[in-house]
Design brief:
The complex is a heterodimer of chains A (624) and B (313). By secondary structure, chain A is α/β, with parallel strands linked by helices. Chain A folds into four domains: 195 residues, Pyruvate-ferredoxin oxidoreductase, PFOR, domain III (Pyruvate-ferredoxin Oxidoreductase, domain 3, 3-Layer(aba) Sandwich); 177 residues, Thiamin diphosphate (ThDP)-binding fold, Pyr/PP domains (Rossmann fold), CATH 3.40.50; 70 residues, no CATH class; 124 residues, 3-Layer(aba) Sandwich (Rossmann fold). Chain A contains 21 helices and 23 strands. Chain A is globular, with a radius of gyration of 27 Å. The relative contact order of chain A is 0.10. Chain B has 313 residues and is of the alpha/beta class. Chain B has a single domain, classed as Rossmann fold (3-Layer(aba) Sandwich). Chain B is built from eleven helices and nine strands. Chain B has a seven-stranded mixed beta sheet with strand order 2-1-3-4-8-7-9, sandwiched between helices. In chain B, strands 5-6 form a two-stranded antiparallel sheet. In chain B, a hairpin with a 5-residue loop joins strand 5 and strand 6. In chain B, helix 6 packs across helix 7. Chain B is globular, with a radius of gyration of 22 Å. The N and C termini of chain B lie far apart (55 Å). The chains are: A alpha/beta (624), B alpha/beta (313). Chains A and B meet through helix 1, strand 9, helix 8, helix 10 and helix 11 of A and strand 2, helix 4, helix 6, helix 10 and helix 11 of B.
């Protein structure tokens, strides 16, 4: 198929070789942040979403103010795509530094597509199929000199579209949608650039043409329309669906885009999002909203969460509903602000003064960001408690396609319940769940409640009574236990007993599922347990954990002084099983599938598995 | 549980009286200035006659911040220094509510200083009463941000060394749109100031010098005539066209307010500044919502979110 966008595109001539069928491909685009390579990733992700293909992306953005190296990795294909892929099948290198830094990520037999105007690959390196394409001059010729090298991204999109036989009408439609709001010249230039890129392989590549396997629609597709978005957007939209109309925040990477989305979206829904002077003011303002009966959200990344801790303890003591998002990044302190880590788990669960039982949920992928955001709000309301939504930098920017949610069924009506409370109303009854009367609610007795951070009696009056303090501590603890008893059993994949159980939480779900497939394919009976409700834990885990020789908890944090990651430490404390061990890392990147296989192999002492890891798996793009 | 109520509640719409508004007995030390502030506040609420359930009394931490326990309204006792951002959430989350915040000089000018600045600049509809005793009383006599130089405390046994804050100047500088000053020995004046503050549409602050008899006795005697001090009220401009009116204080004149704030201790009392033209955060956000909803032509929440997802296909 040839692009219909410009007449000069050579048309109709089929490539010298028929396209080869592949299941999936990992493309890494390496350039500078101003080259718009994220846009290529975005286009490919959305195209995949519209094609019933699965997609997952992975992005690093520099923590510098502007410019600097940037990569975007996209994995697309048929069937379930669980991780963004360990190594790339194709590397598109815009600059020499891109080549130098990322050639090591290319699988043997993979395709190196580089800008011949900027990159000189190492001589004598025959591991890859090298394709020298004049990306810069090609773009300038197509779009015109005034554009400088702006538009290279769209040229590259054209190259990729031709090489992988992507659906051009859908892609051009996406380009029109993306640039449509601007003037027509921009759309025309973008399409010229796309066409030039699309035309280039025809005359310059002999057999590097591929096509994704036809999808088995009955088995794979739900029939529902796919939507394509990143994790932070999914959280923001989840809150809107959950009836959240109030929030407050302070900018911090990688949380900021959630507050930006809510700030612009909420007025449409009659809501308010306040940008506050600091992290403490944000949680305080959010609690003020919740106090008026409008359950509110705030959020941050690790350092900001630390600042919110005093107020978070108040929320536990005063039993105020609230949802706090924490988009984890590398710590401690400013650490690695644009890298992923899962080192805030203990902070999320325990990081406050006093005994502060609260709820911590961790989404497993972008789709789950949406649904857990809704669940977090539901729990906050139902149990009148703070709930932490513990996501991470990788999920925040990763783009995935998933089934469009059934909003009609999901939407929760907003607004406070100001119906008059009966004369026997107590804000903190010992025998019942706390249900605050929002400010503005008439109380039939004429006695109005005080919400308070001081230990209090059932009416909210301060008390130093030791018995009451113990009773109220129990009340605050027991409601979290009551929640735990209602939680669904976590997702167990693979064998229901065996040699190893991989346990993960948060964004490690996908790579762990893939690692499980490889481990079982090697003949090792193994399972994978993924936990979304990280605190309180769902019931029934004892039985599951006990059925495997080793329970390998994989998480992106340090193994600590005692040799166990944060979640592994909790599981050991809770279940007292010596079989619980840790696989940890803190290199700022998500787990590669091979790293997880290696972790399991090491704990099992399994030479076959270890051998599996060291084998270099050739790229499906390798020349025949 | 029990259906028999000893004191039947007043019917809806019954006038609010001190009796109705009284809650727990104050825990303050005998002789504390805060008792008088509380008594004045009851009088203010009696005069305002807001619907009972629409009044919110809120506070942070400190002796004065115990206030909400003593007033029978919706209310809360938050953490140290952060009552203002919480109150901003109440004010913006419940447009029909009347939000009163009480606190001390530590809460307002020290740990909560940043919040004072930003709540004032945003002009959130809140009435804030700062009961300034120039000492940390709850923690038993440490230097506070308004302790005068030379004040001997447990943290400055040789006398306070750091320059104190000038509350009036600070409040003016933050952009508070109603700034007044009173004294806990002047019940009528306090009541009048709080009443005007409550009626002001915006962020209104009354600083009340309220003596801590336990840890800073006589701190404000300089403004108490029976102790030899001078109680001087601000002579507000009446706009009566008289020649002497030109010499009176124009409350809308920010420069004049700063000049008043710079006067030597104990200075003058009354309204320093009042700005009725600056819009409140409440009004600005309401307008943002109205304008945005005009564009979306009143689409339902479901339709709005469906449209968002349609764009992500």
């Amino acid at each position: 198929m040839v692009s219909p966008n410009s007449p000069e595109t050579p048309g109709g001539v089929s490539a010298s070789a028929a396209p080869r069928s592949i299941k999936d491909v990992v493309i890494r685009l390496a350039g500078n942040s101003q080259d718009g390579i994220q846009a290529i990733g975005g286009f490919l992700a959305r195209l995949a979403g519209r094609s019933d293909q699965d997609v997952m992306t992975y992005m690093t953005i520099p923590s510098t103010i502007s410019g600097g190296p940037s990569i975007f990795q996209v994995r697309m294909g048929t069937g379930d795509i669980l991780s963004a892929g360990d190594r790339a099948d194709m590397l598109v290198a815009f600059y020499q530094h891109s080549y130098d830094a990322h050639i090591g990520s290319l699988r043997p037999g993979g395709v190196l597509l580089y800008d011949a105007d900027h990159v000189k690959p190492a001589e004598g390196d025959h591991r890859f199929t090298n394709v020298a394409c004049p990306i810069t001059t090609g773009t300038i010729e197509a779009v015109g000199g005034t554009a400088k090298d702006k538009g290279k991204n769209i040229y590259v999109l054209g190259l990729i579209a031709r090489i992988f036989d992507l659906e051009v009408p859908k892609l051009t439609q996406l380009i029109r949608e993306r640039f449509g709001g601007k003037n027509e010249d921009i759309v025309r230039n973008a399409l010229l650039g796309f066409d030039a890129g699309y035309a280039w392989p025809q005359n310059n590549l002999r057999d590097l043409f591929y096509r994704f396997e036809a999808i088995d629609r009955a088995a794979a597709a739900s029939g529902r329309t796919q939507v394509t978005l990143d994790g932070n957007s999914a959280i923001a939209y989840g809150f809107l669906a959950a009836g959240v109309r109030h929030g407050a925040g302070y900018p911090i990477t990688p949380w900021s885009s959630i507050m930006e989305t809510l700030r612009t979206e909420l007025p449409k829904y009659g809501g308010v999002f306040v940008q506050c002077e600091d992290e403490i003011a944000s949680i305080s303002t959010a609690l003020g909203f919740s106090y008026t009966g409008n359950v509110a959200i705030t959020g941050s990344a690790g350092p900001g969460l630390s600042l919110k801790m005093e107020a978070l303890s108040w929320a536990t003591m005063a039993e105020m509903p609230l949802v706090v998002v924490n988009v984890q990044r590398g710590g401690p302190s400013t650490g690695m602000p644009t890298n992923v880590e899962q080192s805030d788990l203990m902070q999320a669960i325990y990081g406050s003064h006093g005994d502060t039982p609260r709820v911590v949920l961790a989404p497993k992928n972008v789709e789950d960001c949406f649904y857990l955001a809704i669940e977090a709000v539901r729990i906050a309301r139902a149990y009148s408690t703070p709930v932490l939504l513990l996501t991470d930098q990788a999920l925040s920017s990763r783009i995935e396609a998933f089934d469009e949610p059934d909003l009609k069924a999901l939407m929760v009506p907003p607004g406070p319940d100001r119906t008059e409370r009966p004369a026997n109303f107590k804000p903190y009854p010992l025998d019942r769940q706390t249900r605050h009367a929002p400010a503005g609610t008439r109380i039939a007795s004429g006695k109005y409640p005080v919400v308070t951070g001081l230990e209090h009696d059932e009416f909210g009056h301060p008390t130093g009574n030791p018995k009451l303090h113990a009773q109220m501590n129990a009340k605050r603890r027991d409601k979290i236990k009551a929640l735990a008893s209602t939680l669904p059993a976590p997702e167990l994949g693979g064998d229901i007993s065996g040699e190893a159980l991989i346990v993960t939480w948060g964004s490690n779900y996908g790579p762990a599922r893939e690692a499980l497939q490889r481990i079982r394919a090697a003949g090792v009976p193994a399972g994978h347990l993924h936990i979304r409700h990280v605190h309180p834990l769902p019931p029934g885990l004892e039985d599951i954990l006990g059925r495997y020789r080793k329970v390998v908890v994989a998480e992106l944090n340090d193994e600590g002084v005692y040799g166990f990651g944060q979640f592994a430490t909790l599981l050991r404390a809770r279940y007292a099983l010596p079989s619980i061990v840790s696989t940890c890392k803190t290199d700022g990147l998500t787990f590669k599938v091979s790293e997880l296989v290696a972790g399991v192999a090491r704990h099992l002492g399994n030479a076959t598995l270890e051998g599996l890891v060291s084998q270099a798996r050739p790229s499906p793009l390798a020349a025949r | 549980m029990s259906t028999a109520v000893a004191n039947p509640p007043p019917p809806a719409g019954a006038p609010l009286t001190k009796k109705v508004l009284t809650a727990d007995h104050p825990t303050w030390c005998p002789g504390c200035g805060d008792f008088a502030v509380l008594a004045s506040f009851y009088r203010v609420l009696e005069k305002l006659q807001y619907p009972h359930e629409k009044i919110v009394t809120f506070a942070g931490i400190g002796c004065s911040s115990r206030f909400p326990y003593f007033v029978n309204t919706h209310g809360g006792h938050f953490i140290h220094g952060r009552a203002l951002p919480f109150a901003a959430g109440i004010s913006l989350g419940g447009e029909d509510l009347h939000v009163f915040v009480f606190g001390g000089d530590g809460d307002g000018f020290s740990i909560g200083g940043n919040h004072l600045t930003h709540t004032a600049r945003k002009n959130v509809r809140i009435t804030y009463v700062i009961m300034d005793n120039s000492v940390y009383g709850l923690t038993k006599k440490q230097t506070s941000p308004t302790s005068p130089l030379g004040f001997k405390s447990k943290t400055d046994p040789w006398g306070a060394l750091d320059q104190p804050i000038n509350p009036m100047r600070t409040l003016l500088n933050c952009g508070a749109t109603f700034v007044a000053r009173s004294h806990a020995t002047q019940v009528n004046h306090m009541t009048e100031m709080m009443l005007r503050a409550a009626r002001h549409d915006g962020f209104s602050v009354v600083e009340i010098l309220s003596e801590c008899v336990e840890f800073f006795e006589g701190a404000f005697d300089a403004a108490v005539p029976r102790k030899g001090g001078s109680w001087v009220l601000i002579d507000e401009r009446k706009n009566d066209g008289s020649p002497e009116d030109a010499t009176r204080h124009d409350v809308t004149d920010e420069v004049a307010a700063f000049q008043l704030a710079g006067q030597a201790w104990p200075g003058k009392f009354g309204v320093f500044y009042e700005n009725k033209t600056r819009r409140t955060k409440n009004a600005i956000e309401a307008e943002l919502i109205a304008k945005t909803r005009e564009k979306t032509k009143g689409a339902t929440d479901l339709a709005l979110l469906q449209a968002t997802f349609a764009k992500l296909r």
